[in-house]
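Hi X.,

You mentioned you wanted examples for the new student's onboarding notes, showing what a folding record looks like when two proteins sit in one file. Here is a clean example. The first protein comes first, with its sequence line followed by its structure tokens.
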Amino acid sequence: MKKIQAEKGSKKLLNAWAFYDWANSVYTLTIASSIFPIFYSALFKTKDQLVSAFGFEMKQTVLISIITAFTFLTVAILSPILSGVADYVGNKKAFMKFFCYVGSLGCIGLYWFSLEHIHISLLFYFMGLIGYWGSLVFYNSYLPDIAFEDQQDAISAKGFSMGYFGSVLLLVLNLAMVMKPNWFGFDIGETEASLNKASFEAMKISFITVGLWWLLFSQYTFYILPKGVSTGAKVTRNVIFNGLKELQGVWTKLKQDVRLKRYLAAFFVFSMAVQTIMLMAVYFGEKEISWATDSEKTTGLIISILVIQLVAILGAFVTSKASAKFGNIKTLIAVNFVWLCLCFYAFFMVTPMQFYIAAGLVGLVMGGVQSLGRSTYSKFLPETEDTTSYFSFYDVAEKIGIVIGMVIFAVVDQVSSMRYAILFLFVFFLIGIILLFRVPKEDVD
């Protein structure tokens, strides 16, 4: 029996799309934001120990910044090419699946991450990161296909909220494994060293749970989402580079659309800073906050991560309501101002309590700026069936921004400290606010 395709705007289709956030957000929370940074730090004997990779010695956080920047550069180059192929063959769901599976396997591979085999270990880290962001290129492009304009803010916020809620559920399980390994059958022995070894093993097991969660829960989304209209044509050399031509075409059209062009410029700048902070926040807390003991540090970082995720659920909905009342652009300006203030606050943070306060504020504006940034762009798009190309351009702009942000962060971190690296990012929020003020109102709100 042929499967009946869900109609655009239907509750079934909207929920299936949003459910992918439930599936993949465990990567950003457990791998990118919480347990992996703690695990990575535990590999070194001291905070100041340098790491050797690719023939260079560098700070621990600088290596992660460089690999992250390289991954986003790869996504920025590949996404327009793959989007062009997806448009031509009419099956962007297949590409979304491919990146999902690469990312899932990368997470599982982190179980074997070690300094002795640093290059293959970094490959697994690269796979997880490129899998997550690569799949989002196609996931985001579905938004105007599955939702009408008046539904997009709400379903975008719902997706992020489902992601935060689902990822917190798995994180709580993973953190229980790390903090109470004996509850899960790990041999903790009778010494603190044995307990630390058991917790370390629990962290490695958590990477496997993330990969399996992402892999399994994504299947519902893949089952419901339409794959597109297949042309049945073969993929040739011209088709492969068709995406780059489409990107150039989008750029030409953007020059004639003042509102969309100015908004994208603002998004490019403030997203650069937001994503850099989110990717490096836990590393900052691990290195720069004065924790009394290693145990307090692990517990404190875990608490701050949970605070961020739980508050982010509220933040996404509050931002959605605010945008409905005050308009998307005004709300984004307010959110960016909070981020700007957070950069100054972070520079002076020393105590765990100050870090917890920052975590709460980050959570409040994190979900809001992501969901509203995505839905505002979707609402500004001209009438077109070629949404993938426009969202490919959006994703390329975001990824190149992250590359620039991470490289700047790494350079400032290497020559001075992470405090000055965070402080410097306030410049991008300030520029972002100025650019948002220049976006024409028209029928934006």
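Then the second protein repeats the pattern, sequence line and then tokens:
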Amino acid sequence: MADKLDAIVVETGPDPEACVIWLHGLGADGHDFEPFAYQLKLPAAIRYVFPHAPIQPVTINGGLRMRAWYDIVSPNLWQQVDKAGIRRSQGLVTALIEEQIASDIAPGRILVGGFSQGGVIALETGIRSDPLIAGIVVLSGYVALPDELPEAPASAPPILMLHGRDDSIVPLSLAEQSQVRLVSKGYQVSGQTFPVGHSVSPEEIVVLRRWLWERLNQSKD
């Protein structure tokens, strides 16, 4: 298992003033969301980091080796959760955040997000970030370890959760339960649904762009 993540880095201008770390879903790689760097069209110099998950066997896929942030054993995503794998990936993404801070991007100018499994890890990492980051985005994701959610610290990063109403991989009900649990722990969560399955719609990108830009503007204060 890797002790450091390889990643694609895209900078939209010289001397980037902020960083978006984006995590792909199961079986994909960092290239999957690389177009985001151009589709989002944020009016600032942004460093996008698209890491590749480690390659490992995935039980639900017959033990095939593929890029995965953690193992999945059952279609019921709250059964037999791979806690060790989640915590391992959380540590790897935390190291990416620390690299950005060391490169002189302030924690309050760093956002972490992801799709599906990537959203799970973005959430697990972002809510435990120390120092606090600017925000967390979860597309088609959920809280994988609901019984281990920490109470939100003061000034906890806000969370955006977007989900397809017809998602057959990560059911909308699971995302809704996850939002309820996060709010019960004191997190500020914005949620919105879209008429798609387990995918990202153009409408989601519009909402995501607006939210990211609002977060970056607020973090200048």
